[in-house]
């Protein structure tokens, strides 16, 4: 592992802290607990339209109490070494 890669790594404690303190509250904001939750997994090649499909699914699930969207690109900014714009 390169020194730069090692410097960017988060400890297990840091990962858990960011998950509980930042990511989960933000992802679940405005959602309502469901008696029968639904999971939708969207996958495909770059440029295949995954984001558009995920947007449509999220909008549809919004009609029944909201959705928690999970995707690595959504959480990059929570990493302490991610460049701030």
TrEMBL record:
Q: Which reaction does it catalyse?
A: UDP-N-acetyl-alpha-D-glucosamine + ATP = UDP-N-acetyl-alpha-D-glucosamine 3'-phosphate + ADP + H(+)
Keywords for this protein: ATP-binding, Nucleotide-binding
Q: Which InterPro entries would you find in this protein's record?
A: P-loop_NTPase, Zeta_toxin_domain
Q: Which Pfam families match?
A: Zeta_toxin (PF06414)
Q: Report the leader peptide range.
A: none
Entry-linked SUPFAM superfamilies: P-loop containing nucleoside triphosphate hydrolases (SSF52540)
Please state what class of enzyme this protein is. Answer: transferase
- Gene Ontology molecular function: ATP binding; kinase activity
Output this protein's name: UDP-N-acetylglucosamine kinase
> In which organism is this protein found?
Streptomyces gougerotii
């Amino acid at each position: 592992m390169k020194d730069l890669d090692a410097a960017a790594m988060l400890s297990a404690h840091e990962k858990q802290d960011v998950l509980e303190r930042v990511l989960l509250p933000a992802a679940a904001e405005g959602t309502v607990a469901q008696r029968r939750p639904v999971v939708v997994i969207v996958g495909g090649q770059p440029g295949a339209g995954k984001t558009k499909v995920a947007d449509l699914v999220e909008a549809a699930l919004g009609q029944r109490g909201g959705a928690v969207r999970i995707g690595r690109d959504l959480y990059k900014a929570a990493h302490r070494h991610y460049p701030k714009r």
